[in-house]
Design goal:
The chain has 24 residues and is an all-alpha fold. 88% of the residues lie in helices and 0% in strands. It is built from 1 helix and no strands. The chain has one helix at 3-23. The longest helix has 21 residues, at 3-23. Residues 1-24 are annotated as: Disordered. Residues 1-11 have a biased composition (Basic residues).
């Protein structure tokens, strides 16, 4: 159960980092 939120955070961070430079 603790691995689920950690995976979601890593996915969100990677997508946010890629989306940030792409949008900018």
């Amino acid at each position: 159960m603790k691995k689920r939120p950690k995976n979601k955070t890593k996915l969100k961070g990677a997508e946010a980092s890629k989306s940030a430079p792409v949008v900018q």
